[in-house]
Amino acid sequence: MKRRQKMVVCALVVCLGLMGCVSKQEVRRAISSTRVQAYHQWERAREEPDRQEPRLDGRLSLEDALKLSLLHNKSLQAVVQERDVARGRVLSSHRGLLPTVSLLGSYTRHDDDAYDKHAMGALDEYAAGIKVTQPIFRGGATVAELRSAQLFACYSDERVREQTETTLYEVTSGYYRVLLAQQLLEVTQDAVTSAESHLTEVSRKRDSGAATEYHVLRARVDVSLYQAQMIQQRNALNLATTQLLKDMGAHQDSAIELSGQLVYRPARPEFQRMVKLAFYNRPDLGQAQANVHMSEEVIRVAASRYWPQVNAFATGGLSRPEPYASMHDEWDSHASVGISVELPLFDGLQREGQLVESKALLRQRQFELLDVQERAVLQIRQAILSLRDAEQFVESQQMNLQLATEGLRLAEVGYRNGVNTEIDVTDARSSLTRAKGFYYQAIHDHAIARLLLQKSTGVLSPTDQLEVSLTGGLSPEPSVSDEPEHEEHP
């Protein structure tokens, strides 16, 4: 009896050793060590000239920026791995079609105290063999699981397209943001140059007795204010550039100069055509539709449990003592074939509960699909309204810019001739600076509104139907040009 207890205790110790015991402190230490390693890897990566992130130098077009983002954007690279997840699920879904092969082995040691050789046979019993099981009928669950895996692969492709759309949108809008920051920086630099020129004129008049020290002081304050605005705009440009480099997956030490320019391209999208494009191309609609079909397959799998499962099997092996003559302590072979039929009789509530749950999940996915469709239509309507408002804003600011430019010219001429005062010149310069800022902001807003409309229709990333679907619709070209001049509204 004591020997048996020792054997049980030893077996328990071995099992606990195999399972292992991990404390919370050990987990925290492991995480902390991982953080330290990640920092050291980042330090080493900064010193490596051939690191993964490309180091850019020179002029950068929007097209090149988009290509770089598709290759190096980390968020997109992470989502692309879902395709391998889907491929693994498709492979594992074939398990219901293929046979399973199991290797069997056992050893039994009888208790010496209670052992009776004449009644029980050998003291030590050994067995080794192989078992092959081939599913024959599973109530349609095999086909449903395979189809569900294929649907998940389609869902993963739509997830990749959605992240691609998001990446292209972020990079394009970031490119526009840098262009706007460059334009606003040029506006403030021109204002500083104009204010310094005016300060020189005021100083000359003070020396000739035509102006006072107060006028010189006021001109210096104007120069200082515009210089402060220039510093702010330069900081905004640096921030926008670093964000663009991050979205592209490029090295932060890159020295780039954008070759594109913000342009104004009027568009007259047709609402119904845009909705049609969205229903054909939006990746979130594709995901919602795939979810509906996967839920239908889940119902088929749940319904298959009402049918019996039929399997064919074959076993063979060796055992000692002989399986049919336990008194002969010798090795002997054995084999068997047959068909098994399994039909659970006392889990009706569980089967019914799973079926009810699956049907409710299907209805939930159907409502989610309707919600995505309504959201797509709403986003398109809002994008078209924003685009129209942006066009009106651009057209109004074009006239304001012309008037403000002429106003500053007349104020400066009048001041030199003694007709206008310094305050008139300051106000005119301030008005021109604001008009230029509003003008470039209007062009930027129009480009973003155009981009949002393209994103709401799901045409930022390439699809097979895109070229045909866009015929007569909104051009998917980005609102950036390498031309030196701004396009004007006809």
List the helices and strands and how they pair.
Blueprint: H1 2-19, H2 24-47, E1 57-60, H3 62-72, H4 74-80, H5 82-92, E2 100-109, H6 117-120, E3 124-137, H7 141-208, H8 213-248, E4 255-258, E5 261-262, H9 271-281, H10 283-304, E6 309-320, E7 332-342, H11 348-416, H12 422-457, H13 466-469, E8 480-481
Parallel strand pairs: 1-4
Antiparallel strand pairs: 2-3, 3-6, 5-8, 6-7
Structure overview:
The protein has 490 residues and is α+β, with helices and mostly antiparallel strands. It folds into 2 domains: 99-137 and 309-342, Single Sheet (Outer membrane efflux proteins (OEP)); 139-308 and 345-481, Outer membrane efflux proteins (OEP) (Up-down Bundle). The protein has helices at 2-19, 24-47, 62-72, 74-80, 82-92, 117-120, 141-208, 213-248, 271-281, 283-304, 348-416, 422-457, 466-469; strands at residues 57-60, 100-109, 124-137, 255-258, 261-262, 309-320, 332-342, 480-481. The strands form 3 sheets. A 4-stranded antiparallel β-sheet has the order 2-3-6-7, with no helix packed on it. Strands 1-4 form a two-stranded parallel ribbon. Strands 5-8 form a two-stranded antiparallel sheet. Helix 7 (141-208) runs antiparallel to helix 12 (422-457) and helix 10 (283-304) packs antiparallel against helix 11.
